[in-house]
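Usage

Read records sequentially. Each one opens with the input sequence:
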Amino acid sequence: IDTFSTETKSDTDEIDTTLEDLAKLDSIISDVEQVESDLAQAKEEIEDDVAKTHEEQMGRSTVNMALIVVVFILLMIVLVLMFQNRKLASEAPPPPEEEDDDMVILEDL
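and closes with the structure output:
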């Protein structure tokens, strides 16, 4: 009976140790699953932030391109007006100069 008791105690000790190890493994698996869940959530948030930032950047890029086009058009208008003004100035006859024979000299009072 003593040998049976000793063997049984040894077997139950091994079973207890195995159960404790399984409990630790279960805890570790639970922690790993929680980390996996947190990582998946963080990945989704980062992807959303990247998409939002990309959309904002595309909007800014579109606005910048529109401003560049407007400035370019205004520059072209200014250049056309300058050339037309020069052309009109070169084609216009010079204004007649009036010769003033009767010069009035003001004397000091």
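Summary fields computed downstream for this record:
- The chain has a mean pLDDT of 87.
- Helices lie at 2-91.
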